[in-house]
């Protein structure tokens, strides 16, 4: 389908123009890579992990969002956590690349409770590939040159409180808003009045969850995430995941918005995780859109592959298995 290609072409021909990206790497199951939502999650896993995730959203629509990443989340000695990752977002003619580094410290509050505080450094590049957009006026100078933001720097921070059963977290993974202004001289003399701004908005997350041991072989991991982005609808993710013998996980999730009165559910989905060989884990997610986007696409797919390894140093802090 050419829905998004035609839409981008129509929007870009309007003046002035505002271009909005996905803002933050979009993963249906941050449970596979929890460092996405908060730098305080660095070192919060009971195992060190190296992984890769690929997400294809709204398949069947040209220009639909695509996200890929490679990352690591490590628990170091002296109650230090370190996480880093390379994330790529693509949406129509827009391509964003982010490198994130997180450092966290896990402090003991009481006999049962721990508090982790983390900071994040983000280096990003935003690129608009106007030459890839079909248009009805060949030779239009507006579509003859791609634009790039160069290197942009941002920071984030987060807090995570947890004990052997529950956890609560707040974070701003992207603390500052930024914008990209394109001057007339950058796109030629054919469109003297064009002014483009690429806005990156601040993000705020609040989340909580639990790890209930149902039997010697089964666990239940419910969780909730509330996501707020400036100038975007407030969203809530609800997850219910069951685990079996630390080898198999299966569950459902629901993503809703708290703004639209007549259509509060955005998507529903299923996920499955399988641990194979001693240290490898494969995850798969299927997401079905319930919003109006279902008129163009009825499926989103996400896959993850991780290598897991227990740290060799002594465990100073208790790390319950909240995340997959």
Structural account:
By secondary structure, the chain is mainly β. It has one helix at 3-12; strands at 17-19, 48-56, 66-76, 80-91, 94-108, 114-128, 147-148, 152-162, 166-172, 178-182, 196-200, 203-210, 212-213, 218-229, 235-244, 248-257, 265-276, 280-289, 300-309. The protein has one domain (3-309): Porin (Beta Barrel), CATH 2.40.160.40. It is built from one helix and 19 strands. The strands form two sheets. Strands 2-3-4-5-6-8-9-12-14-15-16-17-18-19 form a 14-stranded antiparallel barrel. Strands 1-11-10 form a three-stranded mixed β-sheet, with no helix packed on it. β14 (218-229) and β15 form a beta hairpin.
The rounded distance between the terminal residues' Cα atoms is 35 Å
Mean pLDDT: 80
Helix and strand string, N-terminal first? HEEEEEEEEEEEEEEEEEEE
Poorly predicted spans: 1-23, 182-196
Tell me the radius of gyration: 21 Å
Structural class designation:
mainly beta
* Largest sheet: number of strands, sense, barrel closure: 14 strands, antiparallel, barrel
Task: Provide the domain count.
Answer: 1
CATH class: Mainly Beta
Strand order of the largest sheet: 2-3-4-5-6-8-9-12-14-15-16-17-18-19
Fraction of helical residues:
under 10%
CATH topology name: Porin
């Amino acid at each position: 389908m050419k829905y998004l290609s035609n839409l981008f072409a129509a929007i870009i021909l309007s003046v002035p123009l505002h271009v909005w990206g996905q803002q933050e790497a979009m993963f249906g199951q941050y449970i596979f890579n929890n460092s996405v939502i908060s730098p305080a999650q660095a070192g919060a896993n009971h195992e060190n992990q190296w992984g890769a995730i690929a997400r294809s959203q709204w398949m069947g629509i040209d220009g639909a969002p695509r996200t890929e990443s490679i990352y690591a989340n490590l628990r170091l000695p002296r109650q230090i956590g370190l996480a880093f990752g390379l994330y790529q977002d693509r949406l129509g003619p827009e391509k964003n690349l982010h490198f994130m580094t997180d450092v966290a410290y896990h402090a003991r509050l009481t006999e049962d409770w721990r508090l982790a505080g983390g900071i994040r450094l983000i280096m990003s590049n935003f690129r608009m590939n106007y030459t890839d957009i079909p248009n009805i006026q060949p030779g239009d100078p507006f579509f003859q040159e791609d634009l790039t933001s160069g290197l942009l720097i941002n920071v984030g921070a987060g807090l995570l409180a947890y004990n052997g059963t529950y956890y609560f977290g707040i974070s701003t993974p992207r603390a500052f808003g930024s914008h990209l202004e394109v001057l007339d001289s950058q796109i030629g003399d054919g469109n003297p009045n064009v002014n483009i701004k690429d806005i990156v908005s601040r993000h705020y997350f609040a989340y909580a969850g639990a790890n209930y041991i149902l039997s010697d072989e089964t666990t239940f991991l419910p969780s909730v995430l509330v996501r707020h982005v400036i100038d975007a609808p407030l969203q809530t993710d609800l997850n219910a995941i069951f685990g079996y013998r630390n080898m198999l996980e299966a569950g459902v999730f629901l993503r809703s918005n708290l703004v639209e009165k007549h259509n509060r559910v955005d998507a529903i989905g299923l996920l499955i995780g399988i641990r194979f060989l001693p240290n490898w884990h494969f995850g798969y997610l299927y997401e079905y859109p319930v919003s109006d986007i279902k008129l163009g696409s009825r499926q989103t797919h996400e896959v993850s592959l991780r290598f897991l390894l227990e740290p060799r140093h002594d465990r100073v802090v208790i790390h319950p298995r909240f995340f997959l």
